[in-house]
Amino acid sequence: MRMVLVVACALIDADGRILIAQRPEGKSMAGLWEFPGGKVEAGERPEACLIRELSEELGISVKEECLAPLTFASHAYEDFHLLMPLYVCRRWQGTPAAQEGQTLKWVRAGKLREFPMPPADEPLIPHLIGLVGV
Ligand SMILES: Nc1nc2c([nH]c(=O)n2[C@@H]2O[C@H](COP(=O)(O)OP(=O)(O)OP(=O)(O)O)[C@@H](O)[C@H]2O)c(=O)[nH]1
Q: Where does the secretion signal sit in this chain (predicted)?
């Protein structure tokens, strides 16, 4: 099966809340909430990809040393297998603002289950609760 490498990031604010983004209409899995990030391009380092995606999607600037790996998702979708490292980041420059029509929301880790997420993301939630509490 085709393996797709996607990097994602849980931005954590000073209050311990996590940023999620709702996929806009017209995209696959529209309406679901996800962590900012995207597909790693050919020849691209995962961290560089994440810094690029955070800039494109949220308009923020992140330094590589502010990205810490937390866990990863490995999920068999019907047409591809998703391998998705999840980083956490508590420090960035600028204020996250939707650049691509997404809806953004800061939520407590313990409330993430109230937002429908892609199936690959569900096993990530306990790791975030373990990191920041409910
Ligand atoms: N960024 C992100 N992508 C995720 C998450 N969970 C998850 O299953 N994905 C999947 O990983 C892929 C990320 O693709 P992308 O964001 O770069 O590209 P896209 O939606 O424009 O592409 P697509 O329309 O081909 O899915 C999508 O298939 C998306 O559904 C997540 O938490 N964050």
A: none
Nearest residue (CA) to ligand 1, atom 21: 27
ipTM of the complex: 0.95
Say yes or no: CB of residue 35 within 6 Å of ligand 1. Answer: yes
What pLDDT is recorded for position 27? Answer: 87
Whether 24 lines ligand 1, by a CB cut-off of 6 Å, is: no
- Number of neighbours of residue 48 by Cβ within 10 angstroms: 14
Is residue 36 within 8 A of residue 8, CB to CB? The reply is: yes
The CATH superfamily holding the domain 3-132 is Nucleoside Triphosphate Pyrophosphohydrolase (3.90.79.10)
pLDDT per position as a tens digit, 90-115: 999 999 999 999 999 999 999 999 99
